[in-house]
Design goal:
alpha+beta; 2 domains; 6-stranded antiparallel sheet; 19 helices; 13 strands; globular
């Protein structure tokens, strides 16, 4: 049984933590002389990934400092390990940059804004997610050509929203916190006065487009008809059907393995969800390259059909490797990394995919891997960071700050964290200073990747 402290005791713990980890100390970032070579870290990750896909990852990271940042979660986790901690643990996203927030459809068919990537989720210091979010705002803002004043304003807005939201959550009941969420339609209605007509129109159009991103949409984009049935297209190296990956005898083994993986995964679903999945039959499988940081992990997409060709279901089965946080935090709640991802997602999100589950399987080559499964598309969309204005960055940063606070409040000591943060802007300003300093570090690391590619130490495939 977990001991439940009184509200006053939790507030006192928060205030006391300021002694061991002063709020101003979070503004410090200076790499130590023993800092690991960031390229060595990337090479370590590459060693356990699909070798032929790793150059695609490097090519995507090479595109810009922000693209590099998106793929450098392990590098930043290594850096954060030496930074101050207040001592309060939450379930971390582990990779809480701007592009890992977005909208998606709930089972009730509402659009909500939430964290949407959990490959690196793990229990850990709440400050790590906050610092990664803040640094991503600065890195992305520099890429957009924002001034120093504009960058600082965006970070301060996000951290202010995190801090004040945590303070509000501290005053709520447990159930109120658990059910709190950002309903996109309600948020848009409340923001009408802040948005000019053109932006409001574009936002509505973007949300309408998000609602079309489902399995029917994926069917039209990712398949062609062969002998009367849909088959996933061949678009190498990003999408490769299983028959293109193996010879005929190996193809049969691979297809049977994938069918087996999906059959066993269904045991991790609720009974009603399992009954729904049972009404679909598997039709075709393909390997797919996704994201930036995830490139090189084994990821498959599977096409199922229900009643007929007009009733498709696309699922994604994605390999879960050890969280980048675990080697620095020394803790592990789940032996199965896919279960870790699913459990973390369910803790942090207000509503999760109805087909979200996990499995551990041995592939035809004898390799044992953990995989989690979810829908490929379910009304998902994220902000186009390449086009956001300074004012838009402030609005988006505030949404991310609130959402991260709500996720942390669901599974951490929100009262102690709120007490630690306080009512002033000391912490906000410290994080703004850290974010600028770490953006400098990210630019140096991006340059190191550029040099590693120029000297032939690493190989990259650009344009993919």
């Amino acid at each position: 049984m977990v001991e439940v402290l009184s509200t006053d005791e939790r507030k006192a713990r928060g205030r006391a933590a300021r002694t061991d980890a002063p709020r101003r100390s979070h503004g410090e970032w200076q790499p130590s002389p023993e800092r690991p070579d960031p390229i060595n870290i990337l090479e370590q990750q590459a060693a356990i990934r699909v070798a032929e896909l790793v150059p695609i990852r490097y090519g995507r990271m090479l595109a810009s400092p922000f693209a590099f940042f998106r793929g450098a979660a392990l590098i930043m986790a290594s850096d954060l390990a030496s930074t101050p901690r207040s001592g309060f643990q939450v379930q971390l996203c582990g990779d809480a940059h701007l592009c890992n927030f977005g909208v998606f459809g709930t089972p009730e068919r509402r659009l909500v804004f939430d964290v949407n990537d959990f490959d690196e989720t793990s229990p850990g210091p709440w400050e790590w997610d906050v610092k990664r979010l803040a640094a991503s705002i600065v890195v992305a803002s520099r890429e957009r050509g924002f001034s120093s004043r504009e960058r600082i304003a965006a970070v301060l807005a996000a951290i202010y929203e995190y801090r004040t939201a945590m303070r509000r959550f501290a005053g709520m009941s447990n159930l109120e916190v658990w059910h709190a969420h950002l309903d996109v339609d309600q948020l848009l209605e409340q923001s009408r006065a802040e948005l000019d007509h053109g932006l409001l129109k574009r936002t509505k159009a973007g949300l309408a487009k998000a609602r079309t991103k489902d399995s029917v949409h994926a069917l039209s984009k990712l398949t062609k008809i062969v002998d009367g049935e849909p088959r996933i297209i061949n678009d190498p190296p990003l999408i490769v059907p299983i028959e293109e990956l193996a010879q005929e005898i190996e193809h049969d083994k691979l297809q049977e393995w994938l069918r087996f993986a999906f059959r066993d995964y269904s045991e991790t679903l609720r009974a009603d969800q399992r009954r729904l999945l049972d009404q679909y039959r598997p039709v075709h499988f393909a390997r797919k390259v996704v994201g930036v940081g995830s490139v090189g992990t084994r990821t498959w997409i599977a096409l199922f059909l229900g009643r007929d060709i007009g009733d498709p279901l696309f699922l994604q089965i994605k390999e879960a490797q050890q969280s980048v946080l675990e080697r620095f935090l020394g803790q592990r709640e789940h032996d199965n990394d896919a279960q870790r991802v699913v459990a973390g997602q369910r803790l942090m999100q207000v509503a999760s995919d109805i087909f979200l589950g996990w499995n551990r399987v041995e592939d035809p080559a004898g390799r044992v891997s953990d995989f989690y499964v979810r829908q490929l598309q379910d009304w998902k969309a994220s902000a186009n960071i390449d086009q956001v204005s300074p004012e838009g960055m402030i609005r988006y940063g505030r949404m991310c700050g609130w959402t991260l606070a709500r996720a942390h409040a669901r599974c951490g000591d929100r009262i102690a964290i709120a007490s630690y943060l306080g009512s002033g802007a000391v912490f906000d300003k410290a994080i703004a200073a850290f974010a600028e300093a770490y953006a400098d570090q990210d630019e140096r690391d991006h340059l190191a990747l550029t040099n590693a590619l120029a000297t032939g130490r690493l190989q990259a495939t650009a344009g993919l």
